Amino acid sequence: METTIQQAAESQLDRLRALADKLDCLTETDVMLLGKLSQSTVEAWRKRGTGPAYILLGNRYLYPRKAVAQYLESATRTRSHQSAKEVLQ
Question: Under a CB-based contact definition with an 8 Å cutoff, are residues 26 and 62 in contact?
């Protein structure tokens, strides 16, 4: 019984991913896996408006791939080529 429920949940998740992929989106789970994030972190980003743009469809959150790419671009940090010693002089 338990394995049947687990298989059904996995099947539903696979179907959700396939549908999101057709829409050129990532699922909330995909975003969590991508950044090794907890669900509470992703929820906090949405509440604060600090994470990638998202679509709320029913009770599911979808993240357009372009929005995730833009968010990652804005979060990209460049490393300074100056040493701390040079900065302090």
Answer: yes
- For the chain, the structural domain boundaries read 2-76
**Angle 48-51-54 from CA coordinates, rounded to 5°:** 100
The answer on pLDDT for 49 being more than 70 is: yes
State pTM to two decimals. Answer: 0.77
Exposure string of 15-44, with b = 16+ CB inside 10 Å and e = fewer, is ebeeebeeeebbbbebbeeebebeeeebee
Residues facing residue 44 across a β-bridge:
none
Residue in this structure with the two tokens 């080529």, named with its chain if needed: 81
Phi, psi at residue 12, to the nearest 5°?
-65, -40
